[in-house]
Amino acid sequence: MKIIQLALLIIIPASVFGQADVNQIINKSIQFHDPEGQWQKVALKMIIDEPRTSWPERHSELLLNNQNGNFSLKRNPEGHNLKWLYEDGKSSTFMDQASSETLPADSVSKYRLQPTRTEGYKQFYSFTLGLPMSLKTAGGQIKHEVEQVGFHGQTVYAVTYQLEKPLISSSWVFYFDTNTYQLLGCSLLNDETGEPAEYLKFDKILIETGGLKLPRVKHWFDADDHYLGSDIVVTCEVL
């Protein structure tokens, strides 16, 4: 595997680093990506291309309001206009402007229009788009251990994060540039084995808007380095 090249690098034992070092790494990364502390109060409109091996033409339009918690996601598979909406603490879903409550059960199942999925999408996008800032608010625990490992030919700091409410996985490992503290990627660990199941490599090109510096491209791979898909920010607008 390329993700952690243990044979090529000296791993610094976790005991070398203390709790202050972990917090310092996270805080310096947040300072790099959100120097003005805007993430928690920003409202963003984003268009994201999300090609997957099973869905090469997937596009998503997002509204994410971190101040009031509102969220919407729009997609258009097979010519249908789908919408997941979380507003004023309530979840709802629609297909071609019709509420999922009035749609046939097979359509709701096929297009994942169960209202309960809306909060899952909200959690996913709020967490992944807001990294590393969201590590402070996602309801998880940063493990007070740091290693230096190889990640795509670069020595990085590796920090493990345990989510109280699993998001694909309960355990994520985040990789930070040792000089700039830019977030370069992350691994999702298998909850049973603790081994990497999937990982994301972030492009170093950043979207800079509203005082934020967000990764423009994330590429998904499985544990054997097989490409799974990408998340590509096409536009990002502060509302």
From TrEMBL:
<dbReference type="InterPro" id="IPR045444">
    <property type="entry name" value="DUF6503"/>
</dbReference>
<protein>
    <submittedName>
        <fullName>Uncharacterized protein</fullName>
    </submittedName>
</protein>
<keyword id="KW-0732">Signal</keyword>
<feature type="signal peptide">
    <location>
        <begin position="1"/>
        <end position="20"/>
    </location>
</feature>
<dbReference type="Pfam" id="PF20113">
    <property type="entry name" value="DUF6503"/>
</dbReference>
